Protein: enoyl-CoA hydratase
Amino acid sequence: MQYEDLIVEVHGKVALIRLNRPKALNALNDNMMNELGEALAAFDKDAQIGCIVLTGSEKAFAAGADIVAMKDYTYQDTYRDNYITRNWEHILKVRKPVIGAVAGYALGGGCELAMMCDFLIAADTAKFGQPEIKIGVTPGAGATQRLPRTIGKSKAMDLLLTARTIDAVEAERIGIVSRVVPADQLIAQALEAADTIAAMPLSVAMMIKDAVNRAFETTLTEGVNYERRLFHAAFGTPAQREGMSAFIEKRLPKFEGL
Ligand code: HXC
Structure:
């Protein structure tokens, strides 16, 4: 599939989606977000794919929503046209694991899009921040909600109110990012992590993602009950039979198609 603002590649069982508006540091406009939604939905449906990697360029994952496109919006435009709900949150509907691989700037909506991935691997060049206050708006793609849940109130307030940019090491220390790797190894390491996940039973990976996301939406007791139902439901499935038999028979499991 050809896209105007994305480059997509398939590496074995892993789909790699690159945001690609290099002249605007991957500023996120309507077309790119529409295309991203289409590409994610297509790979989510594709039985050959077990994990998706979302990345940008060496210079920018994404420097935010497209300020040029937004500059003259009115409240009426944004409300009537359902900006940004109409096309920014397709990623949250993806049921397969999505790894964000971030190099360079992940600012504003770029940082928010990154935080909608299941986990982040950052290049040592990555820079995260929520500079919206400097251009006279609040964040609009979840940063005021996801940041405090991820890094706590004090750090979230600091980032959101001062608009300061943090580097990859700080982002890892405070928990925005799972791993930091040398910039020239970012894609290789993200693909390796994705290959590892894609070799697992997909149905179980999807259940784990579902259960972890439930943790942000419900009480501990309800969340643990939900996990328990999934755990019970796993018994008797081909993945459980194969995984446990392989362990007992001292061989590698074969999870293809499971
Ligand atoms: C539109 C952008 C852009 C953006 C960069 N560009 N960010 N265009 N929207 N968010 C464009 C620049 O205008 C410029 O175009 C080209 O990309 C290169 O950018 P420079 O500024 O020349 O690069 P540099 O000096 O290296 O500075 C990089 C930067 C800076 C620090 C990332 O570009 C910057 O501060 N960008 C804006 C970051 C920001 O405020 N993001 C939040 C947006 S609001 P030309 O044509 O001049 O070469 C947001 C709200 C989300 O995201 C709400 C929910 C959707």
